[in-house]
Amino acid sequence: GHLDALLRGLVLGKLGKAGHKATLEEARRRFKDHVEGKHILSADLRSPVYVTILKHGDSTTLDTMLKLHKQADMQEEKNRIERVLGAISQPELIQKVLTFALSEEVRPQDTVSVIGGVAGGSKQGRKAAWKFVRDNWEELYNRYQGGFLISRLIKV
């Protein structure tokens, strides 16, 4: 049922982020099949699989995710990817995600979700996101003109 699917995604996401070996291996296998078009992940498993492979991934993993984002034909999938990019853990890759947030690849109204994902991904991500917001405050403020998105950005 619907609630079981939600619970499954939640549990798998937590196990994957924690580095549970079997979950990590299965997520990597399923992600590889998804990227290669062999077996497309169901929508309810995409976020937990994406979070797992990003949390334990490298620059190649991030590049693959950004490629999936670019190729996505549905905004829902783009948003799903944008929300999980903050799971990446290497400092230089966190910076790459933050730079991506302000790129033309991300709709202005979705930039806050990317930055929020980084802030919520780890303590290191939270510090990097806060520095990024401070360093880019003028651009962000001008982009959102004091509207609800700027207040949401500050909250995250």
Structural summary, described in words:
By secondary structure, the chain is mainly α. The chain has helices at residues 2-18, 21-35, 43-55, 59-71, 75-84, 91-101, 111-121, 123-135, 137-144, 148-155. The mean pLDDT is 94. Helices cover 76% and strands 0% of the residues.
Tell me about the biggest sheet? Answer: none
Head-to-tail CA distance between termini: 32 Å
Tell me the fraction of residues in β-strands, as a range.
under 5%
Round the mean pLDDT to the nearest integer and report it.
94
Count all strands and give the number: 0
Proportion of helical residues: over 70%
Helix tally equals 10
Low-confidence runs? none
Radius of gyration: 16 Å
- Structure classification: mainly alpha
- The arrangement of helices and strands along the chain is HHHHHHHHHH
Q: What is the 3D form?
A: globular
Question: Concise description?
Answer:
The protein has 156 residues and is mainly α. The protein is 76% helix and 0% strand. The chain has ten helices and no strands.
Question: Main attributes?
Answer:
10 helices, globular, mainly alpha, 156 residues
Please render the helix and strand layout as text.
Blueprint: H1 2-18, H2 21-35, H3 43-55, H4 59-71, H5 75-84, H6 91-101, H7 111-121, H8 123-135, H9 137-144, H10 148-155
